[in-house]
Amino acid sequence: MASLREDKKLQTQARIMESAKKMFTEKGYQKASMAEIAKNAEVGAGTIYNYFPSKGSLLLIIFSKEFEQMQKDNVAKLTDPSIGDLVNTIIEVLKQLTSFFNHYSKAFWREIFHVMTEEVEESIHLRRELFGLDEEMMAWFIKLINKHSECFLIPLDPEDAAYAIYGIAITDTMVYIYDENMTYGKFLEQVTRHIKFLFAGKLRQTDVEN
């Protein structure tokens, strides 16, 4: 009996999330109301708050689940870190990790960031993984740099390099999201330019590809 009740709860939660996703997509986060989301999900207006304490937490949970799947897809695409050119491999991985930016409008991303600052408890996990550089990705970059240690002209700490890559990804992402005139293509060009600048003068000439 308990199992049936639990299944019903999960089904209700799934309906609410599908309804919210539809409303957020069609009307935008700000204009979509919890009452409309509840009506579309065929649940009472009060019922929705039994599952999600606020509209912000609902948005974050929906996106967090989608992002987790994107992360899994990207991890599956990663190649052996010992194969290929170091700089171009880093650039290609960052392109994969940021490919989902094209799935949503810049306005949506700005709303996500705004909600993240308000919904501290619900957004901890999402803030940690949003840019695709969670612990697993950081570990992969460190391993990649270690595998190419013989390419460097000067000693380089792999963890420091990984955090520098993270910093580039974060900074360029924020510029892209808040600059309405920057296209996704220009964003990728900027990331490429900054990663190449990061490693300029640090690699043996034979290990540098144009």
In short:
The chain has about 210 residues and is mainly alpha-helical. It has ten helices and no strands.
Characterise this structure:
The chain has 210 residues and is mainly α. The protein has two domains: 1-52, Arc Repressor Mutant, subunit A, CATH 1.10.10; 55-207, Orthogonal Bundle (Tetracycline Repressor, domain 2). Helices cover 70% and strands 0% of the residues. The protein is built from ten helices and no strands. α4 packs parallel to α7 (120-129) and α9 (158-178) runs antiparallel to α10.
Write a concise keyword list for the protein shown above:
2 domains; Tetracycline Repressor, domain 2; single chain; 210 residues; mainly alpha; 70% helix; Arc Repressor Mutant, subunit A
N-to-C terminal Cα separation, in Å?
A: 65 Å
Q: Name the CATH superfamily assignment of the largest domain.
A: Tetracycline Repressor, domain 2
Taken together, the total number of domains comes to 2
Strand percentage: under 5%
CATH class of the largest domain: Mainly Alpha
Structural class by secondary-structure content: mainly alpha
CATH architecture verdict of the largest domain? Orthogonal Bundle
N-to-C SSE string, H for helix and E for strand: HHHHHHHHHH
Q: What is the arithmetic mean of pLDDT?
A: 81
Number of helices: 10
In the CATH hierarchy, the third-tier topology of the largest domain is known as Tetracycline Repressor, domain 2
The gross shape turns out to be elongated
- Unreliable stretches: none
Radius of gyration: 21 Å
Number of DSSP E strands: 0
